[in-house]
Write a structure and sequence with these properties.
Elements: H1 9-21, H2 23-36
Length: 41
């Protein structure tokens, strides 16, 4: 089951900025989002 991830506008701007400036933080956020979407067993 995939949950819909919704960002506040400023949070999405930060997320995009990290994608450009700090790939390590950006990748950690992406990993957390993927983990959130994992089904509970």
């Amino acid at each position: 089951m995939n949950r819909r991830i919704i960002f506040e506008a400023s949070a999405f701007e930060d997320f995009n900025q990290w994608a450009r400036l700090n790939k390590k933080i950006h990748q950690k956020i992406v990993t957390l989002i993927k983990d959130i979407n994992q089904p509970l067993i």
